């Protein structure tokens, strides 16, 4: 039922509710309070709580009132009134900047006021209380001695106060609650000692006690987590039962031949990861694995090993990157490593399509590309392994699109490629369980030998001259550096941000006069960008001024210093990724990252403190989760999933693990949720997560 059809809502109020994500009565029932206020039962003035924290109510007669303008004149000021209760005790009332009350409240009126009271100069006082005028019948009815209650406070929007939302929900609950159907099997609800769904919704909005609203939130959070884990488990079971991947050949000879292509020995953790992945690829069950590790942990070599296993079996491998620059970098580095071999590597991006025929006829063994690989015009001859880099930048459905079945069947099962997704943005375990429960996990720890440690400095803008003076000394010693800026063009606002070109020009003319400064950003033509990056790699450019296009995939060992301008404008994970472009020298020299920042919010200050404190990407990931919260990190835009209203990670990690266990047990017993006790659950699952997880064909 659209909320616009509810009594007293209408088009204007429905528009305001839409801004809060409330379009239907179901949305309204799910719209939980952001907090609760304890509202004491109505009492006389002497019984009024005066701790300034607990709201109380009192009734009485106005015996005096006046308007006190600020500075002796003007519309601003305060309206003061004195209320006397039936026992003769008085309460001072004050409303700030409420001149309209001069025409509304007068002596001899009987009022009931609600608010938080404090003692002031020995007398109780209530500031900005809510009030209502009582008629003769109400005034003579005696004190309302109802018990204390928890009053919900809802996140409001302009023109729609929390109290209005409260009244709207009050009108809906009596007829909507009887229609709430609980999708969870009654035995599961009883096992976890949780309230029924209708009871939980009532307890969320109208809790009798604090224990009730905690129980309600736990039940509703469990619903969200269980549905998501069910979707992931159903999707995984579907792939395993209905799909088959090519079982790739693997032997000591193949292993030795692949390793000989690398210019260095694999670290113990890389070798362990290779063994795990090779085991997956040797079976016909489709691999669906995530490879994660900190910046510089050596993930690309492990991914290349997996793709070369496909080539060794005379099949194709593909690597998809989120940006053209990263795809170009992968193509260049893979081509260099495979120089002199018979492996043919093609590049497919929005601008580079020359290799399309080679992909189709199979003459391209490895294909590196961007989202262009997802287009209908790209048809692989025999794709066996797909690697998706920086997986967090691709939605759930984008990841699934490269896993779409190819033509032909194997004993009734559709053939799909093995999939390896990798990220240099470490994901907290609790978060990966939430979003990536369909993936097996491999984690690379440590860094390849010889990587130099990175020192971090956070400095205010007024010290920028000192920073660039020091940068000049480092460049004069033959080292190279990055300067990262947040915007391509100059932007206005409270704080003017200089463009890439403007900063490059300033550095060339002032701090770095006599040195070679170049720029790179996402709007440059591919050829220009490649030429600049190659010049930087060869040492023909001393300082590269860039946007975040260099965030991942750029490997220049001689670049030992990075300066990030307006660092408070970047996310924590992004700052860590950018920092990973330095510290790649095998000489073990000292690398430095300077964050020039002027944080104006608490979150920005926390980000700067966290990035300066540690180089450990997993600790950075936990700090990022703590600062931003799961809601933002798992937002609809980023993950393709509906936002969670009640569950919170990491706070609900134990509940998440329970939901995952229950989901696996349910799907193991009923993979398509076709049993009678699961049919409602299936309908709710498809409605909420079907599109995001590709579950339209379940059952």
Instruction: Tell me the strand order in the biggest sheet.
Output: 12-13-11-14-17-10-18
Largest sheet: 7 strands, parallel
Name the helicity range. Answer: 25-40%
Q: What is the radius of gyration computed over CA atoms, rounded to a whole number of angstroms?
A: 32 Å
What general form does the structure show? globular
The overall average pLDDT, rounded, is 85
* Cα-to-Cα separation, first versus last residue: 27 Å
Report the count of strand segments: 24
Structural class: alpha/beta
Low-confidence stretches: 392-399, 634-638
Please report the number of helical segments. 23
Strand content: 15-25%
Describe the structure in your own words:
The protein has 699 residues and is an alpha/beta fold. The protein is globular and about 100 Å long. 37% of the residues lie in helices and 21% in strands. The longest helix has 33 residues, at 210-242. It contains 23 helices and 24 strands.
How would you concisely characterize the structure shown here?
With 699 residues, the protein is an alpha/beta fold. The chain contains 23 helices and 24 strands.
């Amino acid at each position: 039922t659209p909320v616009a059809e509810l009594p007293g809502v209408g088009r204007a109020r429905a528009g305001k509710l839409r801004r809060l994500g409330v379009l239907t009565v179901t949305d309204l029932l799910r719209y939980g309070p952001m907090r609760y206020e304890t509202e004491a039962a109505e009492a006389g003035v002497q019984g009024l709580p005066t701790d300034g924290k607990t709201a109380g109510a009192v009734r009485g007669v106005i015996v005096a009132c006046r308007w006190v303008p600020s500075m002796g004149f003007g519309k601003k000021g305060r309206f003061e009134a004195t209320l006397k209760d039936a026992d003769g005790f008085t309460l001072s009332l004050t409303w700030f900047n409420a001149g309209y009350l001069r025409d509304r409240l007068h002596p001899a009126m009987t009022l009931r006021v609600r608010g938080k009271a404090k003692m002031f100069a020995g007398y109780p006082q209530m500031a900005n209380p809510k009030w209502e005028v009582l008629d003769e019948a109400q005034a003579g009815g005696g004190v309302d001695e109802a018990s204390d209650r928890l009053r919900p406070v809802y996140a409001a929007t302009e023109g729609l106060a929390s109290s209005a939302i409260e009244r709207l929900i009050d009108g809906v609950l009596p007829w909507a609650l009887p229609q709430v159907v609980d999708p969870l099997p009654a035995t599961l609800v009883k096992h976890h000692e949780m309230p029924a769904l209708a009871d939980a919704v009532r307890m969320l909005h109208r809790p009798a006690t604090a224990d009730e609203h905690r129980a309600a939130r736990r039940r509703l959070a469990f619903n969200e987590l269980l549905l998501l884990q069910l979707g992931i488990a159903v999707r995984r079971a579907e792939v395993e039962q209905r799909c088959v991947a090519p079982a790739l050949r693997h032997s000591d000879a193949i292993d030795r031949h692949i390793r000989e292509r690398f210019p260095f020995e694999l670290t113990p953790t890389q070798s362990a990861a290779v063994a795990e992945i090779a085991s997956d690829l040797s079976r016909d069950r489709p691999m669906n694995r995530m490879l994660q590790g900190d910046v510089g942990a050596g993930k690309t070599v492990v991914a290349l090993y997996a793709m070369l296993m496909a080539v060794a079996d005379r099949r194709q491998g593909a690597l998809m990157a989120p940006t053209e620059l990263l795809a170009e970098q992968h193509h260049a580095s893979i081509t260099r490593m495979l120089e002199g071999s018979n492996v043919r590597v093609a590049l497919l991006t929005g601008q580079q399509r020359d290799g399309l025929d080679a992909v189709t006829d199979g003459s391209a063994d490895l294909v590196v590309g961007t989202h262009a690989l997802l287009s209908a015009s790209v048809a692989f001859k025999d794709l066996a392994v797909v690697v998706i880099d920086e997986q967090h930048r691709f939605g759930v459905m984008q990841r699934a699109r490269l896993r779409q079945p190819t033509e032909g069947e194997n004993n009734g099962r559709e053939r799909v490629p093995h999939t390896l997704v990798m990220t240099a943005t470490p994901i907290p375990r609790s978060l990966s369980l939430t979003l990536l429960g369909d993936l097996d996990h491999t984690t690379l720890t440590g860094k390849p030998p010889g990587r130099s440690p990175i020192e971090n400095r956070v400095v205010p803008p007024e010290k920028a001259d000192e920073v660039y003076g020091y940068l000049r000394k480092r460049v004069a010693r033959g080292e190279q550096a990055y300067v990262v800026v947040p915007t391509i063009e100059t932007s206005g606002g409270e704080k003017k941000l200089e463009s890439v070109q403007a900063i490059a020009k300033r550095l060339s003319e002032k701090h770095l006069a006599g040195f070679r400064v170049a720029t790179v950003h996402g709007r440059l033509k591919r050829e220009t960008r490649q030429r600049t990056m190659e010049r930087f790699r060869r040492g023909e450019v001393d300082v590269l001024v860039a946007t975040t296009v260099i965030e991942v995939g750029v490997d220049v060992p001689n670049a030992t210093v990075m300066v990030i301008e307006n660092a408070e404008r970047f996310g924590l994970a992004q700052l860590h990724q950018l920092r990973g472009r330095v510290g790649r020298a095998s000489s073990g020299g000292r690398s430095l990252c300077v964050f020039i920042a002027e944080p104006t919010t608490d979150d920005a200050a926390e980000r700067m403190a966290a990035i300066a404190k540690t180089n450990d990407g997993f600790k950075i990931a936990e700090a990022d989760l703590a600062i931003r919260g799961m809601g933002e990190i798992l937002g609809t835009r980023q993950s393709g999933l509906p936002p969670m209203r009640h569950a919170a990670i990491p706070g609900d990690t134990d509940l998440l693990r329970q939901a995952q266990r229950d989901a696996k047990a349910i799907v193991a017993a009923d993979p398509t949720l076709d049993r009678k006790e699961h049919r409602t659950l299936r309908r709710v699952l498809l409605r909420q997560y079907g599109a995001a997880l590709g579950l339209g064909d379940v059952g």
